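Q: What residues go here?
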């Protein structure tokens, strides 16, 4: 598929997404890499726009340069954002109490600390990215190392084989300590993400080096 057709499909997908104002977003595509520019009115709209572009067939990677410009009436002070972020994190039963630190500077929220699972890193980020006034989220949460679990490689390979969205035969899994490396070729950005999530879901994994390429 040509870059021109991919670009048109990304624009169409953005226009089809009801929570995104596509009029303020520009799209350029080169060798399957889609670059998004422009501005939106919230951080969550920015995330939705990126997700919409990733859904498009032919997109191999995303370069996202969208700016968040809150209307004056919706801007929030950093201390207010920080307090609300701490509250919403504490209300989430999937997240450990007192394990996550929050810092806010000019609307940019930085999360730090240790959690046990990768899904908790994602949950913490998702919890704060919808707050008003947030312009960016930097997720610096790390995974707390646990005792090494036997046959991590086999567990991940079986998880990939069970998943209908992944062509497991094309993916090679290597494990060194608590780090998993994925290599091979996949058919789209979503398949690449699904494979990485499978690797993160194995117990005792603290890092995933995703070297999968999109054909």
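A:
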């Amino acid at each position: 598929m040509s870059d021109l057709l991919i670009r048109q499909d990304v624009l169409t997908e953005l226009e089809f997404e009801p929570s995104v104002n596509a009029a303020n977003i520009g799209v350029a595509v080169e060798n399957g890499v889609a670059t998004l520019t422009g501005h939106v009115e919230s951080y969550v709209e920015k995330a939705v726009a990126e997700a919409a572009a990733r859904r498009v067939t032919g997109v191999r990677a995303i370069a996202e340069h969208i700016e968040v410009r809150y209307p004056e009436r919706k801007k929030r002070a950093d201390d207010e954002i920080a307090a609300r972020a701490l509250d919403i994190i504490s209300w989430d039963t999937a997240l450990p109490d007192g394990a996550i630190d929050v810092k806010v500077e000019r609307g940019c929220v930085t999360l730090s600390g240790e959690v046990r699972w990768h899904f908790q890193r994602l949950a913490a980020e998702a919890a704060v990215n919808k707050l008003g006034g947030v312009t960016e989220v930097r997720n610096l949460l790390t995974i707390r190392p646990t005792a090494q679990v036997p046959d991590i490689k086999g567990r991940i390979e079986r998880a990939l084989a069970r998943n209908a969205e992944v062509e497991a035969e094309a993916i090679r899994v290597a494990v060194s300590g608590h780090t998993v490396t994925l290599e091979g070729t996949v058919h789209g950005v979503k398949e690449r993400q699904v494979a990485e999530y499978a690797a993160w879901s194995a117990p005792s994994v603290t890092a995933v080096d995703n070297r999968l390429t999109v054909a």
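A: Context that may help when evaluating the design: The chain has a mean pLDDT of 92. The helical segments are 3-16, 43-54, 78-91, 118-128, 152-162, 189-200.
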